[in-house]
């Protein structure tokens, strides 16, 4: 913040100078623990704060109380997380903290007009050596950084990978991923999770982008387990190596559906199976979903590849077939080790912002349990139940005996009638 803002008793919001109108406004106060006397610092400044795009810089004069006695840097900390200052020279007059807006236990408040990040500077003196007395008081300096919700916080160019910083918080709330079982014609979510061996499950992954720029969805991996824990055993890989549908290598017909209905939707089919010696006959499917900007060209990290048994080759939903060749080598990492997500900065505050954006672009979702009908297969020929056979065989025998008895009675009645007729004549 150009020129900084001087610390003063808590009087309300202090606006930045007109020359720095593009930066967020800052609220500073000076509070002491209840019941303890305190001294009010006087100009020149004793605490100065700069609220930048993704981090804050807090500078503290060691003559914190304006008495000429310097406080120890080790007695100063930032936020409930107790972040320590950067390395301080022994004769330095100023202690500097550099922290991301999310770091050090800071809190955020969302208002209709802006975002407010709150934290505090703490001074907690400790006795020197074996002494049990102190000659200074503990202090807390509340700090707030205010950011307008609409518009960048700096006049300099902001060039993130996919969306301006102003949308970082919105992305965590509006970027919702989903994974559903669909009916056979993909028109609606399936109302049943019961299958038979030989059935085909239809799965649809989707991201709801809200007010974001156009995004394209990818399924990095999918694993089937007999419990909701994706790391449990046994496990079976359905999709692996950043979008290779490896289940299609087996006797199944599993494949991605092409073309996509929309860039933010990806659909695939999976032949139903069950785990050997698992009496529960159910599975859970956990998939890792990820998005990129819609106009990013597909590559071996961002792809959706199915295996074609007739050509014995892999083919993508979009992009060149070359991007699927790594499905054979099982090494689909970029040469530089990047996954095609946000670059991670070496500076801690920028690294924190990148990680939050990256987390907002990925999600693990689970579908299940998917039930398998006991001992029933679409390919199994019908075999009568033994109880059924025994029951209805007995019934048939009884009906046959009744029919024979009735027939015998009819014959006897006819014989008697004939004899009576002959006697009368």
TrEMBL record:
Transmembrane regions listed in the UniProt entry: 392-417
Gene Ontology biological-process entries: binding of sperm to zona pellucida; egg coat formation; positive regulation of acrosome reaction
Statement: the UniProt record of this protein carries the keyword Cell cycle: no
A single GO cellular-component term on record: egg coat
Intracellular or extracellular location(s): Zona pellucida; Cell membrane
GO MF terms, alphabetically ordered: acrosin binding; structural constituent of egg coat
Main location group: other
PTM summary: Proteolytically cleaved before the transmembrane segment to yield the secreted ectodomain incorporated in the zona pellucida.
Pfam family of the protein (one): Zona_pellucida
Highest taxon listed in the record's lineage: Eukaryota
Entry-linked SMART domains: ZP
InterPro entries (alphabetical): ZP-C, ZP-C_dom, ZP-N, ZP_chr, ZP_dom
Ranges of residues in domain ZP: 50-312
Alphabetical UniProt keywords: Cell membrane, Cleavage on pair of basic residues, Disulfide bond, Extracellular matrix, Glycoprotein, Membrane, Secreted, Signal, Transmembrane, Transmembrane helix
Membrane topology annotation: Single-pass type I membrane protein
Function according to Swiss-Prot or TrEMBL: Component of the zona pellucida, an extracellular matrix surrounding oocytes which mediates sperm binding, induction of the acrosome reaction and prevents post-fertilization polyspermy. The zona pellucida is composed of 3 to 4 glycoproteins, ZP1, ZP2, ZP3, and ZP4. ZP3 is essential for sperm binding and zona matrix formation.
Subunit structure: Polymers of ZP2 and ZP3 organized into long filaments cross-linked by ZP1 homodimers. Interacts with ZP1 and ZP2.
Family statement drawn from the similarity comment of this UniProt entry: Belongs to the ZP domain family. ZPC subfamily.
Domain characteristics, as noted in the entry: The ZP domain is involved in the polymerization of the ZP proteins to form the zona pellucida.
Protein name in UniProt: Zona pellucida sperm-binding protein 3
Organism: Sarcophilus harrisii (Tasmanian devil)
Source species taxonomy: Eukaryota, Metazoa, Chordata, Craniata, Vertebrata
